[in-house]
Every structure is written in C-alpha cells, then in structure tokens.
Amino acid sequence: MITFNEAQLTAWLSPLVWPFIRVLALFSALPIFNRRNVPLRVRIALAAFITATAQASLPQMPVVPLDSALAFMLVVQQVLIGVTIGFAVRLVFAAVEYAGELIGLQMGLNFAGFFDPVSATQSTPAASFFATMVAWLFIALNGHLIVISAVVNSFQAFPVGPEPFAFLRQAQPHRWGAEVFATGLWIALPIVTMLLFVNLVLGFISRVAPQIQIFAIGFPITLGLGLAGLYYIIPALQQPFLVTLDKVLAPFR
Questions:
Q1: Taking the alpha carbons of 121, 127, 132, 137 in that order, is the dihedral positive or negative?
Q2: For 85-120, what is each residue's pLDDT tens digit?
Q3: Cα separation of 47 and 23, whole Å?
C-alpha cells in the first residue's frame, strides 16, 4: 500500500503551485487572452501546460506549507509578478492604440466613436484598426512566445520569496507610462506631420482664394492622404512594437 504524509505532498506540489499561479495571473492580464470570449478553463489549461513543460528550466522552489502565512505571501508575489508582466504587454498595445487615436484625430475620424463589445470600452475607428493590427502583429511575430519566455525567466530574475513587492524596485513599472506616449508619438509622427502640413496648405488656400469652400474639399483631402499614409506606415509597425515590447520585458529576463 502506497502511503505519503503531508510533508511529502507539499514537496511534490511546491514546484508546480507557484509557477502555475504566476502564469495564470499572466494570462488573466495578457491582451488577447484576457478577453471575455476566452474561457477561463482555456487559461487554466494553458497555465498548467506551460508550468509542466517549463519544470526543467525552473529553479528549485521553496517548500512551504500551503496553509501558512508565508504561503499567502508567496501567492501574493506570484499574482503581482504575473499581472505586472501582462500589464507591461498591455501598455505596448495601448501605445499603438494611442498612435491610432492621434492619427484619427488629425484625419477627422474621432467623431465617429463607438462602443467595442469585446473590450467593453469606447473606441474610435482608427484606434480600433490599430488595436486589431497590433493583435495580429503580436501573434505573427511570436509575441506570445516572447512573453512566455519572459515569465519563465522571471523565476530566475525574481525567485519565489516572502517579499511580494521586492521586484518593483528593479522592474520600476511606474516608468512604463512614458513608453505609451513616446511609442505612440513615434508611430504617429509621420502622418501627424504630413497632415499638419496639409492643413497649413489648406489654410493658406482659404486665405488666398476665399471663394473656395475649404470645408467641402478639406475633409476628403485630409482623409485620403491620411489613408495613404496608413498604407505606408502599417508595414513599419513591426520595429516600434518589438523595441517597446523588449524594453518593458527586459527586467523579467
């Protein structure tokens, strides 16, 4: 008859419990996977699969009784680190969407706002288009594999320990907000500059020839040139996306 005690059971579960909680917290905050149309059982299955396959590369986990106060602190740490990694990736998505907001504002498309039932937020056509593009780009460039590699390597950078907030000193997530505006402006600056020049030209025309209905011809010209600019800027979206993603995930590698 096979018998085992509580200490043996704790030793068997410890290498699985802490990585599982961290990865599950990641999928709860990771874009695309945290949407309401992704079932919870799918996230749990993915977290369990990654935990099982990454065991060979993980450091030794501390053996802690699961009903102790220290175990509660370890759970808090894993949840915070996993959510922070997912939040970092979400900021990269937000930077691209912010670029879409800036471009849509210059093109005159931001007046056509609508409710997005997937994200449950108010969105504009340009921002929604960029959000769709960055989601496809995230999968096409193996961004999900980069994130999984970061969360696995995070056990080396931030091992399981009793201090849940210690990793904040090294990760410094409060500085990531600047990346949203810097990256968004980086992406949108060519089109914004072009449309600013177009508006200056239209303003000059309206002063030279007041009989021209500038509002009747200005919007089609701005919209057409903006769409032409999007045609050329979308293929170049890869570089700022990868650079920003690598920058925010660097502390976890």
A1: negative
A2: 999 999 899 888 888 888 888 887 766 665 566 555
A3: 5
